[in-house]
Design goal:
172 residues; 0% strand; 72% helix; mainly alpha; 4 helices
Length: 172
């Protein structure tokens, strides 16, 4: 493996580790974070990031440590799951805020207290970040393979250098 190959692998590995950490942090915030204006019982949509975040984080860790086509597919599925869970959580949060706004004057709280939580949006954005990272990684791999193919073609047409010793004549 050449040095620039190792540098690319290290860069993507670090980005996968970062994405895994972001997933865990945003998933915990989306699940446990105090949502303003939400005093009803927790529902499955609110707790879905708690399940999805470790799965997506583990997929990115696996891609960072053992990059392969299997971990790449696993990461893609986990990123897509995170986007879906984040979108559902955001929709749930907006719905809760709108139903709170439709409450009677006695039950109504201030606008700031009934504002929806955007933690699920951050969770979905990290899923999009993971997909973009994966897309860039695939582009780099494709470009590297194309350059290797071109290098093999050039090697066929360029003759090998001969040693200079073939032309030296020693007179005694």
């Amino acid at each position: 493996m050449r040095d620039d190959d190792a540098d690319d692998g290290f860069a993507f590995s670090g980005l996968h580790w970062l994405t895994a950490g972001l997933f865990v942090a945003a998933g915990a915030e989306a699940a446990f974070g105090a949502r303003r204006g939400e005093y009803r019982r927790p529902d499955a949509i609110r707790w879905a990031p708690l399940v999805t975040a470790p799965v997506a984080g583990a997929a990115h860790v696996a891609q960072a440590v053992w990059p392969s086509s299997t971990t790449r597919v696993l990461t893609q599925v986990a990123n897509s799951m995170a986007i879906g869970v984040g979108a559902a959580g955001l929709a749930n949060s907006v719905y809760a805020a709108l139903t709170e706004a439709g409450a009677s004057d006695e039950e109504r709280q201030s606008w700031l207290e009934s504002m929806p939580s955007f933690a699920p949006l951050a969770f979905a954005a990290i899923g999009v970040l993971g997909l973009m990272l994966q897309d860039q990684e695939e582009d780099v791999d494709e470009e590297r393979e194309q350059l290797k193919r071109r290098g093999r073609i050039v090697e066929r047409f360029v003759p090998k250098r001969r040693a200079r010793l073939d032309h030296i004549v020693v007179h005694v």
